[in-house]
Amino acid sequence: MIPPIASRFVAGESPATAFDHVRQTNEDGVKVILNLLGEHYAERGPADDDADAYVDVVRDIGATDLDACVSVKPSQLGIDVGDDLFRENFRRVVAAGDEHGVFVWCDMEDHETTDVTLDAFEEFAREYDGGVGLCVQANLRRTREDLDRIVDVPGKIRLVKGAYDEPESIAYTDKADVNEAYREDLEFLFKERDDGIGVGSHDPKMVSLAAELSAEHGADYEVQMLMGVREDEQRRLAAEGVEVWQYAPYGDKWVSYFYRRLRERKENALFALRAIAGV
Ligand code: FAD
């Protein structure tokens, strides 16, 4: 069972607890992107198992009136074993999403997977009529060119700053440069697209910029934030009429995800210490 301190960031271990979380979050007007925890499988078995689990969850979401979708990770669907395995498993989840009317996102991992992930997104988004979304990372120097390539592809694009430590030769490593790239990429998306723009950031400056750009260009967008991070703001934005999606991980592989959340921000670590100390 997940201890209470981790349950701020993780929606339980089972699909049932994840669905309870979706129901409660939807009551606040916030929609939910479910992510089954798991990554970097070195063998086919667990990658196939996670794809099966996503197919089941997509079917179960489709049978409810919940506002929910899923987001998969390439390395959880087998990209470390082989590109073909990733494509095969990703296609299975996307086909299930198409059958049951459930949107399927794909997270972006480190730069060695970028080309294969982009190719798969482009192919499936066209084939399945926009039922697929892709995350792109503003810290990668290549991203502006990638956006040029996919900006007219149906589906959605989630822009994030980028969570992976990448070499300076291919990525902006200074925070100010990443923020500048994020702003430029967001402006490009709002100029070029009418909809399907996901603002994956907790940064108030980027959320405000998205609102300004939407007012200027008339494009529809959604804000995406993580479970356990700025949830008051998620509810406030939703109450204001902004489409807000909360990315909520679930599953039994929660330990490393939880520690990543603690490491990335002092306030999160203090929250955990306070919970342990009971204050
Ligand atoms: P930061 O640059 O970390 O912070 C900027 C400001 O935001 C802070 O000064 C503060 O005002 C506010 N803020 C940030 N965090 C908090 C907090 N915990 N509490 C209060 N205020 C805070 N990365 C990938 O590489 N691939 C992915 O597929 C991917 N998917 C993601 C999906 C979603 C929905 C989200 C939200 C992020 C995803 N990320 C992904 C992570 C992303 O790349 C960033 O590492 C992460 O979001 C931190 O950047 P930021 O824009 O939120 O804000």
TrEMBL record:
Its cofactor is FAD. Keywords: FAD, Flavoprotein, Nucleotide-binding, Oxidoreductase, Proline metabolism. One of its GO terms (molecular function) is nucleotide binding. One of its GO terms (biological process) is proline metabolic process. Residues 20-271 form the Proline dehydrogenase domain. It holds the Pfam family Pro_dh. The keyword Metal-binding does not apply. Its EC number is 1.5.5.2. It is an enzyme of class 1 (oxidoreductase). It comes from the Archaea. It catalyses: L-proline + a quinone = (S)-1-pyrroline-5-carboxylate + a quinol + H(+). Pathway: Amino-acid degradation; L-proline degradation into L-glutamate; L-glutamate from L-proline: step 1/2. This is proline dehydrogenase. It comes from Halobaculum lipolyticum.
